[in-house]
Prior knowledge:
Number of domains: 1
Number of strands: 6
CATH architecture: 2-Layer Sandwich
Distance between the termini: 39 Å
CATH superfamily: Cation efflux protein, cytoplasmic domain
Strand content: 25-35%
Low-confidence stretches: none
Mean pLDDT: 85
Largest sheet: 4 strands, mixed
Shape: elongated
Radius of gyration: 15 Å
Amino acid sequence: MAIKIPTEQGQITLSNEVIATVVGAAVTDNYGVVGMVSKNLLRDNLIEILKKENYQKGIVLTQENDSISVDVYILVTYGTKISVICRNIQQTIKYNVNRLLGFEPNYVNVHVQGVKLDS
């Protein structure tokens, strides 16, 4: 599925890979985020930190009429305040997607899949 944005001159279609790259970079730049993990944690049966080329596995994009929502699945560092990390991720995603892709998601949902201890 790709996101379709109507404009005066026609329609812009953005593939999930492009959006996942922008969203993934926005997520992993935040303090306290270890990395992105798969949205299918039960099926994959282990927590694996996703590399840049696999960000799409940790992101779900939903488009309903004019509303676009983004769900991201992350792993955080032990000892950090999760609510602050999630709020920063939401703001960073909205800003970067608007600046780089030209639309603003209505909802950004952050799902914390686990906490990693520093070793």
